[in-house]
Amino acid sequence: MPIYLWWPGHVPATTDGRLAALVDVTPTLLAAIGLAPSYQVDGRGLLGADRRDRVLLEYWQDRANGSIPTWASTYAPGRWQYTEYYDGGGRRVDREYYDLTADPWQLSNVLGDGEPANDPDLAPLADALAAQRRCTGTACS
């Protein structure tokens, strides 16, 4: 996600290619003004050298977008994206996996191509996604 932060005399102007997410805005702004939160915040401050190699993306079904199912996804830029879809009871009903090196536009779901031989081992991906969904604070990727 592109982010622009400008505060002359406090934050130096620079370009940074790190992966960032909206959840990183709060810890970044708190660090910029020198405040420590009184509670545990998710995300990572972007003023230091901390880096992430993936980001958790989630969407929870709402009344305004009733036809879009709830989903959660782990996105590892340039490598892969794994997504799970859930029914109203929170049970997984579908999955997608994209090889972003071979398919950067995510046009071919590897799990739906009819070739089980090229499917990744889903157990570690599902476990990692579940762990990310439960995770809080700066220890999360």
From TrEMBL:
SUPFAM superfamilies: Alkaline phosphatase-like
Lineage of source species: Bacteria, Bacillati, Actinomycetota, Actinomycetes, Micromonosporales
Name of protein: Sulfatase N-terminal domain-containing protein
Species: Phytohabitans rumicis
Listed PANTHER family: N-ACETYLGLUCOSAMINE-6-SULFATASE FAMILY MEMBER (PTHR43108), SD21168P (PTHR43108:SF8)
